[in-house]
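Thread: adenosine monophosphate complex, take 2
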Amino acid sequence: MPDLPDLLPLAEAQRRVLEGIAPLPAERVAIGEASGRVLAAPVDAAVTLPPWTNSAMDGFAVLAQDVFGASAATPVTLRVLGEVPAGRAPDLAVEPGTALRIMTGAMMPPGADAVVPVEDTDAPAGASDIPASVAIRAPIRVNDNLRFPGSDVHAGTRLLEPGRACDAAVVALLAATGHGSVMAHRRPRVAVISTGDELVPPGTPLGPAQIHDSNSYALAAQAVEAGAEVRRLGVAGDTLAALLDLLRDAIAWADVVVLSGGVSLGAHDHVKAAFAELGSLALWRVAIKPGRPFAYARAAVGDRSVSLFGLPGNPVSVFVTFELFVRPVLRLLEGRPNAYDRPVRTARLLQPMRGSSGRHTIARVVLAADSDRRDGLVARSSGGQDSYMLASLSKANAMIFIPPDADLDAGAEVEAWELRPRDS
Ligand code: AMP
Ligand code: MG
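Output below.
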């Protein structure tokens, strides 16, 4: 038996990987590119919203007292002086007995104190000429259908705090409050490398003893989903020299390098040696199943620190160790407040599940609503749990953690990380 390091407990391995990881520097990002980026500085409103009183409806700006008591049976007819379209300041005032046609969002004209929706008049809805007069068929109160300055946002108030990710609602608020750009953390650059003489690209026919490289595509997809900018650097054959070549290119560009394969006990596994040559190995071998051979190192390049992940080659091990170790690092580099941001659920097992000796088992499961308990969830295995089985991985919507040496009966409660919406 070779001299092997003790298996690190999962929590200790996660702690070592995240140690000292800090958000990437801030840069100015145009609002059109801000989706998914994380704010690096607080944002205050540059303008007041609405900036001036405007109409909430397409209709007629009136004096409410003129249409007191109006109804379909007893309409009130007003003379229409003209109109206020969107984007033009009104050049007329409403006087008693008159109205101005007004569009949604247009500036309220002086004199008027309410807007009657076009639906409550005899005027045609939609594109039409300005009528000479309008019959109002419903009463209205002062201030009805008006939107007042500052009722949404006051200039100078704090809108958003650092660490907030720009989703569509945030982008809308930023744009509406006059921000053409924001300060956001740089996106992490992730370089992906596969290792193994057996690998050929998907889409090419397989020769004897060959398999398709699935890991680098899976990892690129996971990294993009986690918010990174990704380059796949290709496949390194099973020599130290080939690996060092690609790894040097990766380190020159990336914040995070993710390799798969070549990190176990095989005679042609060179990843740890390559890590030791270009950086320093922080850990190797973790008490998890799948993923035991996981390795992590850091390399210093000038003032940059590059994280080097050596993921085991089996495709399910790749998926799971990315979730456990790589994604949390990417989230912190992006400037998000939480490294672990998968929704954590408690679920009731529908079948017995066996843990493994001395290791956390991470099982792929399907979470579903529990028909017996309101708001409860049940979990069942998504299928074969071996670390090469991709078909069952694709069926899973969550992964659960079975503690070391635990044998769980049907009905046992487990903690699950939800990986995608349950009904998708
Ligand atoms: P290794 O740790 O390099 O011995 O790889 C473990 C298992 O994962 C072997 O069955 C490899 O063929 C497989 N494997 C390694 N890299 C990849 C990859 N990029 N895509 C698919 N399978 C892989
Ligand atoms: Mg290999």
